[in-house]
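Help: why these numbers?

___
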Amino acid sequence: MNGILHGNKLKTAGLIIGIVFAFIILVLSVIMGYTNTSLSTAIDAYTAFNGSNEQLIIKISRVPRALVGMAVGISLGIAGVLMQALTRNPIASPDIFGVNAGAGFFIVFGVTFLGISSIQEFMWIGFLGAAVASGMAYILGSAGKGGLTPVKLTLAGAVIAALFASLTQGMLVTNEKALDEVLFWLAGSVEGRKLSMLTAVLPALFIAWIVSVLLSRQLNAFALGEDVAVSLGQKTVVFKFIAALMVILLAGGSVAIAGPISFIGIVVPHFARYLVGSDHRWIVPFSAIVGGIMLVAADIGARYIIMPEEAPVGVVTALIGTPFFIYIVRKGIFQK
């Protein structure tokens, strides 16, 4: 598959343009919203702080929100690429395969029964939930005649996602305190997030970003089929374990700070392939940039849908991703 950007020079230029555009989106996220601010106000908040309401909103709310949105978008975009390459399933993503739902369930369980409240605790229990959900989906999708197939894995992921979502709702019904604490978070949101929340999970996310880029060459071989990868000398068991671990870090860390945001992991890798083709050495970085841009742009839109109130960003990403998901399924390209 060839993308619209041909040649390494054109792809490099496209990546640079994407980085610049990501920076522009970050700036827009900082200055746009219910409270009118400007670029000069944002700069003054850090160079000539006077304690005004506008500057406080920028420092305490807008900047952390923009950075969290960018980090989560990058993580979910890369996680989608890894999952689609590992399963050779074009609709694979952390939300479709129940990874986000598993992480969310474990976090709600921790809030309800263990009294967890710190982001560090959210992070570790989110990682555990993502790992459990991934393992359950893989085992269930591998059961029966024919072993693991894209369709069986998709159905298994849907079952796991429904199971954990139902269990989560059941806990919230019986615990009003937990409902108040996590309801908005469960819809997927970056509103009200603090920089301390991002810095707590950023080391894990950053490691996963770097390792995913380093795995991109091996992803090309694996995408041709496991037998081909083995014939090329790839240790597929080790490779799959490392790639799956990166998905757990990316999805678990993202859910810990922003809740289970859907459809970024599905849409972004396809858009990256449209731009650069099937070479994962380019798909991974392009998916990172596009994922960050898409989530921050969706968050900006979420501020205006029901102004003066704000919609969770997960609602906006669902509105964007649902038609695309239907398009992919109708094409039937995953039915192999």
User: Anything to note?
Assistant: The chain has a mean pLDDT of 86. The chain is about 75% helix and 0% strand. The CA atoms of residues 165 and 312 lie 18 Å apart. The chain has one domain: 8-331.
